[in-house]
Design brief:
It holds the Pfam family Acetyltransf_1. About 35% of the residues lie in helices and about 30% in strands. It has helices spanning about 10-20, 30-40, 65-75, 95-110, 125-135; strands at about 5, 45-50, 55-60, 80-85, 115-125, 140-145, 150-160. A 7-stranded mixed sheet has the order 1-2-3-4-5-7-6, sandwiched between helices. Strand 6 and strand 7 form a beta hairpin. The protein is globular and about 40 Å long.
């Protein structure tokens, strides 16, 4: 079951923010205020209870300043961009990531969005995320070096 982060209680919100920040190498660290802004503008900001995993995604209408989101906006007129997906270490391998993506695919299809995009770090490498997205049918459509973040990313797309 995927629940809405925006309607979660303060303890759950804090736990999810901590989970995000514990994975800041892959995502980016956020303050409580930035976390609130992120989830309030999302197409989907969902989590699996109690607070072991979450997914945050935006569609093309989002007011979201992010170079990766902008990369997709420059190329696709209608899309959903997965900004971050995190599954806690103790919950990996239980299908939570697949469950969250299945919900995203369902909602995106219902909203007539057939392109799902995301980025995965190439440098520093994130082989777990690469493998996971490949099993879901994502394919590379581009790359970029993000100088302000000192990382290179691969842009991936799945067409529904």
């Amino acid at each position: 079951m995927i629940l809405d982060i925006a309607t979660a209680g303060a303890d759950t919100q804090a736990a999810l923010l901590t989970l995000n920040n514990d994975h800041s190498r892959e995502t980016s660290a956020l303050t409580a205020a930035k976390w609130h802004d992120l989830i309030s503008g999302a197409f989907l900001a969902g989590y699996v209870p109690p607070s072991s995993s979450f997914l945050i995604a935006f569609d093309e209408r989002a007011d979201y300043e992010n170079p990766n989101f902008s990369w997709f906006a420059d190329r696709f007129p209608r899309f959903v961009y997965v900004d971050r997906i995190v599954v806690s270490a103790g919950q990996k391998g239980q299908g939570l990531g697949r469950q969250m993506y299945a919900e995203l695919f369902r909602r995106a299809h219902a909203a007539d969005r057939i392109v799902i995009g995301c980025e995965v770090n190439l440098e520093p490498p994130n082989p777990g995320s690469d493998a996971f997205h490949a099993t879901l049918g994502f394919e590379e459509v581009g790359r970029a070096y993000l100088a302000d973040r000192s990382k290179t990313v691969r842009y991936l797309v799945k067409r529904l």
